[in-house]
């Protein structure tokens, strides 16, 4: 569990610099340059991610069940994951109404992903992992919206075509991940 927690601290810590240290970040980027900052940020993030993966595997071996979710919860989780994948797609597909309206769909996707998994799995390692990401996403969304207001950020309006493409990409991503990749990468087949 210690490796999982360390990985979360490193990974989410790096991703929290804009939440808690925007001034420090700006000064550091000015001092070392944007390329060096991105390189350092990437290395720290990868190190944290590797520790999360290894730590999560090790922590799940010592299963501590905190609660058992009802059977039907997996269906709610699957539905929430459809929403999470559409939100994730909205972060990247240009000119979609979802991003125009919500502004930070990637963070909302992380929020939805974490909540969906907390509802479905009551194992200690999962609660630590998904709970940490949920707390981070809540704080990051709030911080991002405040930064947008302070900077007067305006998001371009979405189009019907961009929004339709976003939904289609999200649905395909959900189907591929739920039916194939989740079982291969995570070892759990969420749809049976």
Automatic annotation (TrEMBL):
Keywords: Membrane, Transmembrane, Transmembrane helix. InterPro entries: NnrU_dom (IPR009915). This is NnrU family protein. Residues 3-190 form the NnrU domain. The chain crosses the membrane at residues 40-59, 71-93, 113-139, 160-186. It holds the Pfam family NnrU. The keyword Metal-binding does not apply. It is found in: Membrane. It is a multi-pass membrane protein. The keyword Membrane applies. It comes from Ramlibacter aquaticus. Its main location: membrane.
